Amino acid sequence: MAHKKAMERLQQLRAEAMQGGGDARIEAQHAKGKLTARERMELLFDAGSFEELGQMVTHRSTLFGLDKQTYLGDGVVTGYGQIHGRTVYAFAQDFTVLGGSLAEAHAEKICRILDLAVQNGCPVIGLNDSGGARIQEGVVSLGGYADIFYRNTRASGVIPQLSLIMGPCAGGAVYSPALTDFIGMVQGSSYMFVTGPNVVKTVTHEEVSSEDLGGASAHATKSGVTHFTYVNERTAIEGFKQLLSYLPQNCEDGVPHLAYSGGDEIRSRLNTVIPESAQQPYDMREVIDELVDAESFLEVHKEFAENMVVGFARLAGRSIGIIANQPAYLAGVLDIHASTKGGRFVRFCDAFQIPLLVLEDVPGFLPGTDQEWNGIITNGAKLLYAFAEATVPRITVITRKAYGGAYDVMNSKHIGADMNYAWPSAEIAVMGAKGAAEIIFKKDISTAQDPAATWAEKESEYAEAFAHPYRAAARGYVDEVIEPSQTRNKLIRAFGMLENKVAHNPKRKHGNIPL
Ligand code: HXC
Fold first, then answer.
1. Domains in the chain, ordered, with CATH?
2. What are 178-197's pLDDT values in tens digits?
3. Is the pTM of this model over 0.90?
4. Residues with CB under 6 A from ligand 1
């Protein structure tokens, strides 16, 4: 072909690829308040940095009318570019092309992106908007999904993998996002479920809408499937870019380290945050905000298991992961959801060398048949296992209660924490003084002339003996009892001291976390 004609052909094909499924379908996408795959990629990457790969790929199937419906790119835009100056790979499913459905060629393009991301040690972001397995292509669509699942699993812990759900994500398709590290959903326009409302109605006779079954709110509050929800696509993409700024490029890269000039390390406000009564709640987020660099706390899983607060922050410019009991919700008790939420976050941070800060105020594990029958034993063990296995720098600050098994589980030095600080208000004991007195002085109380007065007297006796941090400090379980206002300063120094920590778990194929 003559040069000029060849150039024209290229321009024509490029223009065709940019059109996706055509103007009418693009309009329909916009009418639903959704952006197209290409518009999403534009927002995701630094201006002008996106390099598309596989733009001319097409499907090979000719069945069920597909011979007349060939689209360049096969319904997924793939490539790499820069986000805040760092290389990131991404794919965006194009709902305007055959409903973004996934089949052989579409899957091959995603697999190539995952392979490149792993090979070159960069994060990968998937923008999901798809009707699922392309029905016309049959089993190759299922094979394509499995090829992706396999790669998601092998990439786990090697590079950060993030999934944004911006439309339908149903059936087995949900398992690719589920295998990645973080999921974000857009309110009102995205949903995820293994079986949709119609099947649910047939099988269980429940009537439920897509939104109620698998919308952003359901997964943020009930299932915990999504870590983040966003009001629209623009804030979703901005949110993911912000998330990425806390993460290393890969498991060997080391955490991002922003310039930090110091100053303002003493936080007097922390001296008054603990209420006078040990039964009174306070908001652990206030403590976090005082400890970390200004406005740097990015909460993960905010609406799920609110008795546990987890998220990323910066301390003296360096990324850290925070796991904190929340006394303002269910008194900060550990239950099944809080344990799995905390455990998963600990494992992500450990896999990517992000140091861990634990803020502890926990009255113990939640009692009851619901918790026992649903497996608080196995699920609580996940959090314990995750901490015990983590080799990143780990520091605990006990702000108030550290009772019972929860004292051990919440990153105690016995399970490998590097440093454990306690505030003077810390109570480190097998249980609260009231309950303890009732058990060990049962006889004295029941035979007393005034049982209530005796109980109160024994309670204060027990509290005097144990409701403080000094017995633990005397044993070295607590390294130092510190004034709350000094905590930020202590943490900056201690994490600095631990910066070159080297620790390894015993050689083995892999451990057996109680799943
Ligand atoms: C082929 C599909 C498709 C699919 C949608 N389309 N899903 N084509 N395979 N899976 C096409 C439609 O035919 C239509 O084409 C266009 O995409 C837009 O779809 P609409 O239905 O018009 O859009 P909307 O009303 O927004 O509804 C979206 C939807 C619906 C809810 C996703 O399309 C739907 O229910 N699709 C089928 C979903 C499904 O059952 N997928 C298989 C899941 S099982 P035209 O040409 O008319 O514009 C699965 C297994 C994975 O995925 C297993 C992995 C292990």
1. 2-244 (3.90.226.10), 268-431+467-497 (3.90.226.10), 433-466 (no CATH)
2. 999 999 999 999 999 999 99
3. yes
4. 98-99, 101, 131-136, 142, 145, 168, 170-173
